[in-house]
Amino acid sequence: MPNTSGSTPRPQELRIKSGEDDMKDLAEKFTEIERRIKKLVDENRSHKKRVRELEKELAQSRHDTKKSAQVQDKHLDLRKRVEKILKDLEGVETKKADSVR
């Protein structure tokens, strides 16, 4: 039974009070840990979302790079073909000019 007389508490009362304080401290620590875990879970969810976004951007960038390389290859091929046609036309003009003389 708790001491209500205002005199010095007995050892048993001190143990009960000490046990209550320990439980209160433990509950506070548990609440703090729970809050921190929830915060970390939220951050983790946010990071996972950002990673997915970055992975999509990376995939798009790789796709764009591949298409760009294909366009450059086609451009180079067309340039070579045009240069060959121009060279052939110059040869025809040269022959035509030679035959007119």
Q: In percent, how much strand structure appears in the residues?
A: under 5%
Output the number of helix runs: 1
Query: Rough shape?
Result: rod-shaped
Mean pLDDT: 86
Distance between the termini: 134 Å
Q: Ranges with pLDDT <50 over ≥5 residues?
A: none
- Write down the secondary-structure element order: H
Oligomerization state? single chain
| Rg from Cα | 42 Å
**Main β-sheet: number of strands, strand sense, barrel status?**
none
**Range of helix content:** over 70%
Total strand count, please?
0
SSE class: mainly alpha
Structure description:
- There is one protein chain.
- With 101 residues, this protein is mostly helical.
- It contains 1 helix and no strands.
- The radius of gyration is 42 Å and the shape is rod-shaped.
- The mean pLDDT is 86.
Question: How is the secondary structure organized here?
Answer:
Elements: H1 11-100
Top keywords for this entry?
mainly alpha, single chain, 101 residues
Kindly summarize this structure in a few lines.
With 101 residues, this protein is mainly alpha-helical. The protein contains 1 helix and no strands.
